[in-house]
Write a structure and sequence with these properties.
Blueprint lengths: L3 H15 L1 H29 L1 H9 L13 H8 L10 E7 L6 E7 L13
Antiparallel strand pairs: 1-2
Length: 122
C-alpha cells in the first residue's frame, strides 16, 4: 500500500516534467542576479578604497603650513621633527594680469622634494 507522500511525489514529478523550461529560466535568472550583485559589491569595495590608494601612491601632503619667511636652519629643524615623514618647501608666487585686478596665486618649488617625494603627479 502506498503512503500519502507517494501521491505528492507523483504530482511533483509530473509538474517538473511539464515546467522544466520555466525552472531552467528561473535558475539562470537567479544566477545572473547573484553575479551582478557580487560584481556591484566588488566595485563598491574598490571605489571605497580608491582615495586611500591614490593618496598612498601620490604621497599627497597631509598638512600644509604657511610660515612666512623661514630660515634654512628652521626648515632643516622642521624636517627632523617627530612625525614628519617627508618635507617639501615651496614659495608662493602671485601673477597679476596686466590692466586687470585679477591675480593668480601659484607656488614655485624651492627643492627637488616637491613633485617627487611629496605630491607626486599622476
Amino acid at each position: 500500500m502506498a503512503g500519502p507522500m507517494s501521491g505528492v511525489a507523483m504530482v511533483a514529478r509530473s509538474e517538473l516534467r511539464r515546467r522544466w523550461r520555466s525552472l531552467v529560466v528561473l535558475t539562470v535568472l537567479v544566477a545572473v542576479s547573484a553575479a551582478v550583485t557580487l560584481a556591484l559589491v566588488a566595485g563598491a569595495r574598490r571605489t571605497s578604497s580608491a582615495l586611500v590608494r591614490f593618496e598612498t601612491y601620490s604621497q599627497s601632503a597631509d598638512v600644509e603650513l604657511t610660515v612666512g619667511e623661514a630660515t634654512d636652519a628652521q626648515l632643516r629643524a622642521f624636517a627632523r621633527s617627530p612625525g614628519v615623514k617627508a618635507f617639501a618647501p615651496v614659495r608662493q608666487v602671485t601673477l597679476v594680469v596686466k590692466d586687470s585686478r585679477r591675480f593668480l596665486p601659484t607656488a614655485a618649488q624651492s627643492s627637488d622634494a616637491f613633485g617627487t617625494t611629496v605630491d607626486r603627479p599622476v
